[in-house]
Amino acid sequence: MTAIGPFGEYPQTRPRRNRQTDWSRRLVRENYLSVDNLIWPIFVQPGKATRTPIASLPGVDRLSIDIAVEEAQRAESLGIPVIALFPATPTELKTPQCEEAINPDNLVCQAVRAIKEKGLDIGILCDVALDPYSSHGHDGLVKDGYVVNDETVEMLCRQAIIQAAAGCDIIAPSDMMDGRIDAIRKALDHDQYQHVQIMAYAAKYASAFYGPFRDAVGSSGNLAGGDKKTYQMDPANTDEAIREVGLDLSEGADMVMVKPGMPYLDIVRRIKETFAVPTYVYQVSGEYAMLQAAAGNGWLDLEKTMMESLMAFKRAGANGILTYFAPQAAELLRKG
Ligand code: PBG
């Protein structure tokens, strides 16, 4: 501080100087959001030419495959690099043993093939987990009330194989079973799918923010036991995320993911700093619903809060974001 006048001392350093004008703010900007950072999750359902709204996810519909193909074309034209496909499996096909998960003609595989036929310049990501196919709503097979690990991993390997065979580019295990990345990598390689990438849901928490997603795939009503705490992580833990990511990388994951997003930015930052690998974050359904609900009530500006939340992921160190806002954000980024 220097005394510069009759009114006392003024700051020598004024961070506000750099913020005075738009050009100066641009000059000192540290992070950028690009359409290249976006992954767009899409829900598919049976039927033709139908869109079914999801009450808890305003603005997101379940799409029949023909419409999902059109949306994939839209994703390409917007420059979105990857879409993620999730099936809303009809209830009558959901079973305790989840046979539909390994049916090469299931909804997801049909959708992957239909999109691949168009030869678009986009990647397709598919979740590997049993919850869209299980009558009990769990991500794995249940024995005596417990989600059994190793039997589930065998199913996940078979699920990964049929998705790869359909043309899926990125396999994304979201189940949180132990050892599944190693097993899936070996299974893929054994069947000549060495080129198929793996994005591991590595630090996936037992979060209450997944509610609207479970509505979308119809797995919420039947979740036996009510939660997934015996396999998804405790929201109280950080070191455990490092351990999980370390394991998934050592088992062959090409990319890792943190989920949920906004309440877990500290995890994104720590993983990025620890491992320096491609790190993604899922802005999950509940986060999307929160912003939509507040905006719907006129309490928040949707576009501004959406873009700010996406920028926050970049600032935390994420390379990309799975977000239901992807097409809207891409449109805004295009407009500049
Ligand atoms: C399936 C899966 C879930 C989500 C993505 N994959 C739900 C869950 O684990 O219960 C949630 C995504 C979202 O909430 O947007 N294992």
Automatic annotation (TrEMBL):
Residue ranges, annotated region (Disordered): 1-21
GO biological process: protoporphyrinogen IX biosynthetic process
Residues of the active site: K204 (schiff-base intermediate with substrate), K259 (schiff-base intermediate with substrate)
Domain of life, per lineage: Bacteria
GO cellular component: cytosol
Family: Belongs to the ALAD family.
Record's protein name: Delta-aminolevulinic acid dehydratase
Organism: Blastopirellula marina
